Amino acid sequence: MPQYPKPFFKPKRNTWYVEVGRVQHPLGKHPDGLPPPKKRGGKWEAPRVILDAYHAKMTELQQQAADEIPAVSDAVPAVATVLDEFTGWLKGRVQEGSKAARTLAWYTDYLNSFLGYLRTIEPGQPHVPTITVDQLQPLHVYRWVDAHPDWKSGKRGAMVAVQRVFNWAAKAGLLKAIGGNSPLAGLEKPQQGRREQLVTPEEFEDILSWVKDRPFADLLEVSWETGARPHELFTVEARFVDLQNGRWVFPVKESKGKKTQRVVYLTQKALAITKRLMAEHPEGPLFHNSERQPWCASSVKCRFQRLRDELGRRRLIKLGLMPPKIKRLTYAQREEPGRREAHHKAVLDRRRRIKALAKQHGTKYSLYAFRHAFCTSALESGKLDAVTVSVLMGHKDTTMISRHYSHLTQRLGHLREAAMKARGA
What we know:
Elements: E1 8-10, E2 15-20, E3 23-29, E4 39-40, E5 43-44, H1 48-67, H2 79-96, H3 101-120, H4 138-146, H5 155-172, H6 201-209, H7 214-226, H8 230-235, E6 241-242, E7 247-249, E8 263-265, H9 268-280, H10 297-319, H11 331-334, H12 339-361, H13 367-380, H14 386-393, H15 399-405, H16 412-422
Antiparallel strand pairs: 1-2, 2-3, 4-5, 6-7, 7-8
Helix pairs in contact: 2-3, 2-5, 4-5, 7-13, 10-12, 13-14
């Protein structure tokens, strides 16, 4: 997914900059008294005063871009105008609390990228593309998405984001000049992917045995016990907990869809973990990682990657595929010219090889896999009907259960028993 440009530091000038449209805008000198800037994950870690200057500069540049949107006739609006109208409408919904800020950020990233592409295909590459809605075709969207081969699973999301803008514009009456219909109504999108990973209770216990840090184990256990959405696990706070009835009660404005109240019902194990975390974190999110930061999608993804590598290494040992160890150099060998450098390179090559093999042979899990396992087990037990399960999962009806979550088609034994019962066998 495209990202906003980040602040970067020039040591020779002791100055922070941000580059927008191939223009470097200074953000100020590095504050005196602070340690020299460092990179983390390949990106500069800017101090607070520089971040404030960065946000102010980005707001200024966005306002300038909005002011430069050309005036168009009432007959056919420009694509940039429609996107700007939608963004303004969405900002209003965020301010009133009916939409989440992350929703606005999701749309903004894709729409800025789409406008950037439209700029590149116009003569002279104007700062704001002048293409009008009647000139917009699905082919523009297809070529924009194809220009980003790194969007492996995000291509459908990118196309949905742009298509929804013009669906909204049609309902808002902005497209009357072209008949009131979206020019992207017939956009063909890639088929939505489905998570088919199933986790058995035995497999889950094996996973837990390899998790040594308590914060991650707490997150996994509550996910397994409740079937809660990852975002619900990341955002639940002590103020949402109803201990008397053993549940989490999210306010409507903090529930998915922001239309109905989400309630997560807790088992005894999940309730015990919740009580302990309430004492540790009376304010803010309950679940924190080992670095005492609230869990988020990125930190959970990284932790699951580490778990995959650990499981992969174990399987390499079991299959006898572990690359042979590099013998240590003797004192005499260390004195040979170039021997230490060659040995160090061999050690690093072996580590890279092990990591690649572990990634290949390990299993990558996700919190959604545990949520799906919760749903599947509940249905397979035969003790709960689909309506009850849909309530526990936080769905408004059983449609999502039957379409995405049950995975009963993969449980051959269960289906064979059901077929026998249907025939009275």
